Amino acid sequence: MIRASPHAHWYVVGTVCIGAFMGQLDASIVTLALPRMGLDLHASLGAVEWVALAYLLVLVATVATVGRIADAVGRKLLYVYGFGVFTAGSALCGVAPTLAILIAARVLQAIGAAMLQANSVALIAEAMPPSMLGRGIGVQGSAQALGLAMGPAIGGILLSLAGWRLIFLVNLPAGAIGLALGWFLLPRSRSRRELGAPDGLGAVLLALAAMGPLVYLSLAGREGYANGVLLACLAGGVAAAFGFVRRERRAAAPLIDLSILRRRGLATGLGSGLVSYLALFATLFVVPYYLSAERDSATLIGLQLAVLPVAIGITAPFAGRLVNRLGSRWLTAGGLILAGVGMLEIATRHGTAGILIGLGLTGVGLGSFTPANNAGVMSTSPRGHAGVVSGMLNMTRGLGTALGVALAGALFTAGAGVAGAQVAEADVATVGGGLETALGVIGLVTVATGLALLLSERRRPSQTQ
After folding, report:
1. Higher confidence at residue 18 or residue 1?
2. DSSP-derived secondary structure letter, 128
3. What angle do CA 344, 350, 355 make, to 5 degrees?
4. For residue 258, what is the DSSP state?
5. Do domains 1-195 and 262-465 have the same CATH topology?
6. E strands along 169-243, which residues?
7. Fewer CB within 10 Å: N-end or C-end of the chain?
8. Which run of H or of E encompasses 285?
């Protein structure tokens, strides 16, 4: 039988990689298709943005809750059903006749994605031998990077062939394959914990705490950072976060046992993971503006940007193998420092060589950081909490993504001295000022975070998996 095979853990990794690839591919393709959707559905830019925003909001708001449920009912069950829900949502997106139905279908798709993402790292952590955990997570990181890298290219081909509906319908065969493989290859959860009384209030407060800042960060760049409605969303999210902490401390069966965040390495791993995604998406957001100002073609811009995720994909499997030899300390701290240096290289040298070298260094740094950080976080997860920790890990990724785009946009606008539509007409020198400011500041933050990790671990033994 397959489960008796000595390579059964790699079957698990392969199945999880399908979900990781699909998630990243779908996210990068959809942003490319938004203008075409607006034209076909007769919707404004502000309205059609909710096709992307609704997906991100629901995913970030529910992924930790789904992870808690998975710890109780079984990770295989929710992962397999997640493929089904994601595929059904994709089919509905592909045939949606109106924008409202498309957004509703994207919400369903996001719920399926949450069921996949909340269990992905947890499934690998449970299936892989401790000595091979870093390698398994490294391979998954490569799948995510490959999906991110191929998104614009595949999206452009699909849009030119049959329009935006095909970018959703292409998920159907991949989802069916993933569902079948998950059913036959994924092992049942070995460790579970009682679900207890449903913590509905905690789930609502956590969702509001995640959604408030995310709405603000996603829309403030266009509506204004002093917009009253958006500030109210931000304040509501902060209030919900305080309410969530208070609720979880008193609940008999909390959604998230906050005491686990006192474990050495868990809180710092989640926080540094957020910084890594801030760095990744700030770079991917800002660099295209500069390349466009240089009048590079869309194809050439895509090829140059692909250096970053390709470098992640190449580096991550090797970094995963090195976790046990070097420990997570040097790979996580050194990876963030190298990523920050790459961003500073782009900020200080704007020529083609400087940009390509900087993108490569950033990719190698993040490819080194991610497997070691994920393995470190999961290795400190208490028994029976792997699902909720995996969900928290993915929630911080979503927040880091939104924060990277929003913060980079604000710094870029301030450094360039132009706003909104004026960026498209700005000259290279003006856009270069924005590039220097955005990547310079975020690059320094990334380097500082890496140094802080290094210093905080000085008196601790290296974490090996």
Report:
1. 18
2. S
3. 70
4. G
5. yes
6. none
7. N
8. helix 266-293
Domain 262-465: assigned CATH number? 1.20.1250.20
Other Cβ atoms closer than 10 A to 194? 9
Give the Cα separation of 432 and 321 in Å (integer).
Answer: 38
* Structure-token pair, residue 94: 């592909």
**How far from chain centre, in Å, is Cα 347?**
24
Helix axes 99-127, 352-379, angle to 10 degrees: 60
Other Cβ atoms less than 10 A from the Cβ of 333: the count is 24
309-328 burial: b if 16+ Cβ within 10 Å, else e: bbbbbbbbbebbebbbebbb
Q: What value does the mean pLDDT take over residues 326-353?
A: 89
Helix (H) or strand (E) holding 75: helix 75-95
Place of tokens 């969530």: 244
Pick the closest to residue 460 from 371, 396, 341, 380 (CA basis): 380
Where are the domains positioned within the chain? 1-195, 197-252, 262-465
Q: Of 309, 403, 439, which Cα lies nearest the Cα of 56?
A: 403
Please enumerate in sequence order all residues whose Cβ is within 8 A of that of 423, keeping only pairs 6 or more positions apart, or say none: 289, 413, 416, 431, 434
Per residue in 342-365, pLDDT tens?
999 999 988 888 999 999 999 999
**Helical spans, DSSP H, in 163-199:** 165-169, 171-185
DSSP string, 22-63: HHHHHHHHHHHHHHHHHHHTT--HHHHTHHHHHHHHHHHHHH
Angle formed at CA 378 by CA 377 and CA 384, multiple of 5 degrees: 130
Question: What's the whole-model pTM score?
Answer: 0.76
Between CA 299 and CA 294 the distance in angstroms is: 14
Distance CA 178, CA 79 (A): 10
Nearest to 167 by CA among 213, 106, 107, 221: 106
Q: Classify domain 1-195 by CATH number.
A: 1.20.1250.20
User: What is the per-residue pLDDT across 106-151, written as a single tens digit (0 to 9) for each?
Assistant: 999 989 988 887 777 777 777 777 777 767 777 776 777 677 667 7
Tokens linked to 283: 């770079």
CB 318 within 8 A of CB 327: no
Q: How does residue 419 score in pLDDT terms, banded at 50, 70 and 90?
A: low
Kindly state the greatest CA–CA separation across the chain: 64
Looking at 327-427, list the stretches that DSSP marks H as alpha helix, in order from N- to C-terminal side.
328-348, 352-379, 386-416, 422-425
